[in-house]
Amino acid sequence: MNEITIKVLKGFPEINKNASLTDLISKNLKKNNIALKSGDVLCIAHKIVSKAEGRIVHLPDIEPSSKAIYYANILNKDPRKVEVILSESRKVVRYFKHERQNEGTMICEHKLGFISANAGVDESNVAGRDNVLLLPKNPDISAKKIMNFFKKKYNTDIGLVITDTFGRPWRVGQVNVAIGVSGIPVTKSEKGTEDSFGNFMKVTEPAFCDEIAAASGLVIKKSSKTPIVLFRGLEWANAKSSIKDVLRKKKEDMFL
Fold it and tell me: Given pLDDT bands bounded at 50, 70 and 90, which one contains residue 178?
């Protein structure tokens, strides 16, 4: 790999429920004078996928449980939002009240297996009052549908990554991570290869999908409607992978 290009697709429209996301992406590619080539990877912010799949919850429709009210009182959160968070979670891992913020945070294990703040339930970039957005029901399936459409349309082998923004233990700030993949390997094992000093690597396994996702955050701007990023020049081989392949098994988790 000598060079890669990372290009944000400009001018993407607002997404409504049941919108044909593939048609809108097609039009956006054409608008940006892009024809997909084999080896390209499209990186897509999950919000447009979730919106097209109707994953918006109107909080006035939610009746909070006693458990939701308990967390809401401790964390100064809307109990209806807490109820949605709980409904998206397998369990609450941690919760804490910020000293410098008005509202506390719930660290949850999402039903999809991700450990993240508030189970990915988000209020930003969602139209209307009292609405929150959920993650896609199955981001891998969503990614596969989009990938297959464009593989057929352009007769090319492309990869697809769907992203969300996560915080990180022990570090300040957020980065984009992969929550759904299709076509690409989630990791690239370098075990058994030599480093520049002739030493054989034993455990090195870069998280390829997360490297792509994090790089997309350099050009995606939440306020500029640029949810799609094209990567060209990456080296990868087609793989039947799942985002579950990058989730650490519980028996290997030293912190839960």
Answer: very high
Across 76-84, average pLDDT: 97
DSSP states of 142-210 as a string? HHHHHHHHHHHHHT---EEEEEEEEEETTEEEEEEEEEEEEBS-S----TT-B-TTSPBPSS----HHH
Q: What's the mean per-residue pLDDT of the chain?
A: 91
Q: What is the pLDDT of residues 186-227, one digit of tens each?
A: 998 655 565 565 665 555 688 999 999 999 999 987 767 899
Report how far residue 187's alpha carbon sits from residue 236's, in angstroms, rounded to the nearest whole number.
10
Long-range contacts of 174-178 (CB under 8 A, 24+ apart): 175/213, 175/214, 175/217, 176/45, 176/213, 176/214, 176/216, 176/217, 176/220, 177/210, 177/213, 177/214, 178/209, 178/210, 178/212, 178/213, 178/243, 178/246
Q: How far apart are CA 225 and CA 118, in angstroms?
A: 23
Q: pLDDT, tens digit, for every residue of 97-121?
A: 877 778 999 999 999 999 999 999 9
Q: Which domains does the chain have, with CATH numbers?
A: 5-54+136-247 (3.30.1330.100), 57-132 (3.90.1660.10)
Task: Give yes or no for a contact between 92 and 71, defined as CB atoms under 8 angstroms apart.
Answer: yes
